[in-house]
Design brief:
The protein is an alpha/beta fold. It has 3 domains: 36-73 and 180-353, Rossmann fold (3-Layer(aba) Sandwich); 81-174, Rossmann fold, CATH 3.40.50; 359-436, Alpha-Beta Plaits, CATH 3.30.70. Helix content is 43%, strand content 17%. It has a 6-stranded mixed sheet, with helices on both faces. The chain has a 4-stranded parallel sheet with strand order 5-4-3-6, sandwiched between helices. The chain has a 4-stranded antiparallel sheet with strand order 12-13-11-14. The longest helix has 17 residues, at 180-196. Residues 362-438 form the ACT domain.
């Protein structure tokens, strides 16, 4: 939807005062209108506590036929855009509550941002996590200055314990929600992008179960220029935002994958405020495959030297997958919002992405077990400039012919064209060559 006038009226329609359940010890019992002035005030208040991250022209622009500018929010201290909303939220707390402290119950980017900024503001902060949480995440929260408490075997048990501690000790239990304060802080990304990139045609944000960044930034961008397209991107595995927009209320996708690869992209934590803002102000929401996200992560690592997670890469994935052909030749900003990927996952993701990009391939063939035959195969691989990663030989269970050896090779190539050339060369010399399909 394009907004051509009455920005404040549309925002007022989008955000109504929605009471929170009395059992929830949250920041506010009622949300007010998020106005452009609220976002401007948030930008002024948090300017000394968060980075004004660069929004730089990308080398990927030529590859995808548009001017791409990357807003590098993963350069924030905790590696996540969530710092903006968290800092403004903490600074807005009454002094009495700041003295008592806050408590969170997860190992998400939101919790790490709370741990860091609460410590910086000298607010006592406690993080409750399940015993299955990765030790590195627990250590990070402690390094930021939080008291990390391991409790229970599931996230639900950790949350119940955190709520109990909050009630007993007067802490404020925080979880990522769509209060006006939090959305205003996140909306400062939209302000910065507008300032940094003149003549913008579109801005792409991650969406999914956490659309506060999308909703808050859309409010800022549409006020400044109603003709800028605001686009959200979520995973095909759990298109919760699209389902919720269709239903008219937040819905939970039972197929949501809680694998750490998806992190803050999966699940549902947005409320009616974020959903209504998104429905009113966001022009389009698209879904991408897991394969597209992995390729996007690979492109960012190679072309931008940026190590990001699924949430950080999902916006670019829409361009990688060709989901937005209408942006060809346009000036587009993509928000790269998070870079918190565990090391073992990073290795797996890059290895898998290289395979999906047809740059690591595997084939099997049978050659005579005679001196010199293996060297002939290696000569072909050397002539075709393929880098050999692994060679395995099987003699005992080869049934095709006697005194033969089955050779399985894993090789690295430059790109899909190079892979096709190698395949043709091998088939010409070894017609029975079989390729392992990805």
């Amino acid at each position: 939807m394009k907004i051509v006038s009455r920005n404040e009226e549309l925002l007022r329609e989008a955000l109504s005062c929605i009471p929170q359940p009395s059992s929830r010890a949250s920041l506010a019992s009622c949300n007010k209108l998020i106005r452009f002035e609220d976002i401007s005030a948030a930008a002024f208040k948090i300017q000394c506590g968060v980075q004004k991250t660069p929004c730089m022209y990308s080398r990927l622009s030529k590859q995808y036929g548009m001017d791409i500018y990357l807003k590098k929010e993963f350069l924030q201290y905790t590696g996540s855009v969530k710092e903006r909303g968290v800092l403004y939220l903490l600074m807005s707390l009454p002094q009495e509550q700041q003295r008592k402290g806050v408590i969170v119950a997860s190992d998400s980017n939101f919790s790490m941002a709370v741990a860091h900024h609460a410590s910086e503001l000298r607010v006592p902060v406690f993080v409750v996590v399940a015993s299955s949480t990765a030790p590195a995440r627990v250590r990070t929260c402690r390094d930021y200055g939080a008291v990390a408490i391991s409790y229970g075997t599931t996230a639900k048990e950790a949350q119940l314990h955190a709520r109990r501690l909050a009630q007993e000790n007067g802490y404020l239990y925080l979880e990522e929600e769509d209060s006006a304060v939090y959305l205003s802080g996140l909306g400062t990304v939209g302000l910065e992008v507008y300032e940094q990139v003149p003549k913008l045609d579109a801005v792409i944000f991650p969406a999914g179960g956490h659309c506060g960044l999308l909703a808050g930034s859309a409010a800022a961008l549409k006020h400044l220029n109603p003709h800028i397209s605001v686009i959200g991107v979520e995973s095909e595995s759990f298109p919760v935002l699209q389902q919720s927009l269709k239903a008219g209320h937040p819905t939970e996708d039972q197929a949501c994958n809680n694998h750490h690869f998806y992190g803050d992209v999966s699940g549902v934590c947005f409320g009616s405020n974020s959903l209504q803002l998104t429905g009113k102000l966001v022009d389009k929401v698209v879904a991408v495959r897991e394969e597209d996200i992995l390729i996007s992560m690979l492109r960012l690592l190679e072309y931008e030297r940026a190590t990001v997670d699924a949430e950080g890469a999902i916006g670019l994935a829409a361009l990688v997958a060709g989901k937005l052909p209408e942006l060809k030749g346009k000036r587009v900003a993509v928000v790269i919002c998070s870079g918190n990927l565990e090391l073992h996952l990073l290795q797996e993701c890059i290895a898998r992405a290289l395979t999906l990009d047809s740059r690591v391939c595997r084939f099997s063939l049978v050659i005579s077990d005679c001196p010199g035959d293996m060297s002939k195969l290696l000569e072909i691989l050397a002539r075709e400039e393929a880098r050999v990663l692994d060679i395995q030989q099987e003699r005992t269970f080869v049934t095709s012919e006697l005194f033969a050896v089955q050779v399985t090779c894993t090789v690295e190539t430059r790109d899909k064209i190079h892979t096709a050339q190698l395949r043709n060369a091998l088939l010409e010399r070894y017609p029975t060559t079989s390729w392992t399909e990805r």
